[in-house]
Design goal:
heterodimer, A: about 200 residues, alpha/beta, Rossmann fold, seven-stranded parallel sheet, two-stranded antiparallel sheet, 9 strands, B: Rossmann fold, three-stranded antiparallel sheet, 10 helices
Chain lengths: ~200, ~280
């Protein structure tokens, strides 16, 4: 992992579905402050869950946690949560945009949509985590991140609450890391060591 | 899942330029990320062997241009989407509209019309439909054709019925349509007050004055500059004290016309023109 501290990272993506909430809640309290990138979280859920999610994340970290808004600048030190029932896309000028097109693999927000557009814009300077889930969303997106030269991390399916999503991704690509949820915050903190 | 980079960025520019010059459709101020996904999706879906063939088809096949416009402009909509929004319309907006002798409502970017039918149901239940006119417009004629038929997939009705009830609906939702095979046909009394017409928010002007304009989940696809122009168009097309309703993630807040409007409550995206 040490070598990755030399990497320029401007954006960290975390995507997951069933069983991923607990992983994110484990990562957040261990994140250092002042890391030089933004974090975007895409998690599948019912729309009714909406407002509680940013509050819940906000209660576990000193980072600014907010729901992603359309046309908003992506700023370091901020955690953006994809709103329920919209796809969250990344624009060329590093702003966010929302999209209400068809669900992808029964999902909106779709992890693939955010990962793919982020890879397209941030290229090598993105790191993407794919966590537990009962759905194949995220594999294509993670593959796009890898092809663009970004860093890819998949939660160890052996410990994932639902291993389907990690396994689907592992069938499609060999990530840079297969990590336990206990190691993820450590890696994110390392990525911010560069400056 | 389709790949995002099948059609390259510079090729997309070429396509958009062709569409503007040959067919008069201006997508240049649309948000790029969504546009790029839609174009790559369509290219993959329609199995074009190469960009050249995609481009040729778009240059010469008017029927395919219609399909392109429909697919690029995201005709995804639902009945009574965001039930609390409709509840607010029922409780706070319709009582005001009821004081006008004729109620004119504009659904801008209505797609396949689900929201227009939802509105007609609200008006009917408030006993206002008989004196209302619902202008439903969209950039693309194909979806308007479908909207005017009032026929929607039957398998959506369970969800719509739940939305309807959460919005404060008291009737039996199924009393508004008749089921045939896998489709639901909504009653003609609802569509009798609807006027369907193509209208392009990018290039067309104001065509009437309204007491209520609804434009939900359309502006998210426009860049800031185009949003500003459309907000000006809406302001110009609203009566004094008319209402403007946007999608749940859209806002008037950052626009130049913001000072001329007042939000009617903190939660729903409904504003009233006050100046």
């Amino acid at each position: 992992m040490e070598k990755d501290s030399l990497r320029q990272v401007d954006l960290v993506l975390i995507g997951g579905s069933a069983g991923s909430l607990e992983v994110i809640l484990r990562i957040l309290p261990d994140l250092k402050y002042g890391l030089p990138f933004a974090i975007i979280i895409i998690i599948h859920r019912k729309s009714s869950f909406e407002s509680t999610l940013t509050d819940l994340f906000g209660s576990r970290t000193g980072w600014l946690v907010k729901e992603a808004e359309e046309k908003e600048d992506i700023l370091p030190g901020t955690i953006y949560v994809a709103p329920a029932d919209y796809h969250l896309l990344i624009e060329d000028d590093r702003t966010l945009s929302l999209d209400f097109s068809e669900k992808i693999l029964h999902s909106r927000p779709a992890i693939d949509a955010t990962f793919q557009t982020a890879a397209d814009v941030y290229k090598r300077s993105v790191a993407a985590f794919l966590l537990s889930g009962a759905n194949a969303d995220g594999s294509a997106g993670l593959h796009a991140v890898q092809k663009a030269g970004g860093l890819t991390i998949i939660q160890d399916p052996e410990e994932a609450e639902i291993k389907y999503m990690p396994v689907q991704a592992l069938n499609k690509l060999t990530p840079d890391y297969i990590l336990s949820k206990h190691k993820m915050a450590e890696l994110i903190n390392l990525l911010g060591n560069k400056g | 899942m389709f790949e995002l980079k099948v059609v390259q960025d510079d090729e997309i520019k070429v396509l958009l330029n062709d569409l503007l010059e040959l067919h008069g459709y201006d997508f240049t101020d649309y948000s790029k990320a969504s546009l790029k996904r839609r174009i790559n999706r369509l290219f993959t879906l329609d199995r074009f062997p190469s960009f050249a063939e995609f481009r040729y088809r778009l240059m010469h096949d008017a029927q395919y241009v219609r399909r392109f416009v429909e697919q690029i402009t995201v005709p995804v909509t639902e009945m009574f989407r965001d039930p609390s929004f409709y509840k607010t319309l029922r409780e706070e907006v319709l009582p005001v509209l009821g004081t006008y002798p004729v109620i004119r409502i504009w659904h801008a970017g209505c797609a396949t019309g689900e929201e227009v039918y939802s509105m007609a149901i609200l008006l009917k239940e408030a006993n206002l439909l008989h004196k209302s006119l619902l202008y439903a417009t969209d950039i693309n004629p194909e979806v308007l054709e479908r909207a005017s038929n009032g026929i929607f997939p039957l398998n959506q009705m369970k969800q719509y019925s739940e939305n309807y009830i959460s919005s404060g609906g008291k009737q039996e939702f199924s009393s508004y349509y008749s089921a045939k095979y896998d489709m639901a046909k909504f009653e003609d009394s609802l569509s009798s007050k609807m006027i369907f017409s193509t209208h392009n928010l990018v290039s067309d002007r104001s065509f009437n004055e309204f007491q209520l304009i609804l434009c939900r989940n359309v502006l998210i696809y426009f860049d800031r500059q185009l949003q500003t122009r459309v907000f000006e168009l809406f302001t110009e097309s609203l009566d004094n004290l008319g209402f403007l309703a946007l999608g749940s993630k859209e806002t008037l807040r950052f626009s130049a016309v913001a000072a001329r409007f007042k939000a009617i409550n903190a939660k729903e995206k409904i504003w009233r023109k006050i100046a």
